[in-house]
Amino acid sequence: MMQATNGELTIRDILLAEVWQFVERARACPGVRRIALVGSLTTFKTDPKDADVLITVNDDADLTPLATLGRRLKGHAQSRNRGGDIFLADPSGNYIGRICHWRECYPGKRMSCDAQHCGRRAFLHDDLDDVTLDASLIKTPPLELWPKIVRRVELPGDVETQLIRAIEAQQHKAKAGAPRG
User: Fold this and answer.
1) Is the backbone of residue 62 left (phi > 0), alpha (psi -120 to 50) or beta?
2) Residue 152 to residue 179: CA distance in whole angstroms
3) DSSP H/E element including 138
4) How far apart are alpha carbons 52 and 85 in whole angstroms?
5) Disulfide: which of 46, 146, 155, 171 matches 35 by Cβ 3.0-4.6 Å?
6) What is the secondary structure of 158-181 as a DSSP string?
7) Domain ranges for the chain
8) Chain centroid to CA 8: how far?
9) For residue range 19-54, what is the model confidence (pLDDT) as tens digits?
10) What are the tens digits of pLDDT across the range 140-165?
């Protein structure tokens, strides 16, 4: 899936590959309703600092598997001196916070946790005084990746070739293998 420029992978190549891996796994998590790409990867910025993913989840969704996937994405990005954030919204379109980056998350576990309600909902980092997303970004993100692909901005070619085509190929493969009724 990754494309090399002059034999070298760019940071965009690496981050897009990580996002693709994340989407492939996160879409199977119960309670996930939508996955979107936001932030600098949806722009023509050549040296993005991170990968930003917005996930809409049911109010009762267990965030544990998303937290595991988010730590993996963030860890792989950090190995390249970059980052990754998994932003969360509820089905009504409200920003509810980010995925907690700690491996263990429950009330009182970390004195340094700045979540408003640490551990009330496992792996929800609701540091809403520090980070918020505009309601319009949640309602109409630049690129929805799942359950269907929706483009709302002109996207860089690498997003089309490395991310969208890979997702479309996987969706086509899944449909071809699905039993017909």
Assistant:
1) beta
2) 33
3) helix 135-139
4) 5
5) 146
6) HIIIIIIHHHHHHHHHHHHHSPP-
7) 4-177
8) 25
9) 999 999 999 999 999 999 999 999 999 999 999 999
10) 999 999 999 999 999 999 999 999 99
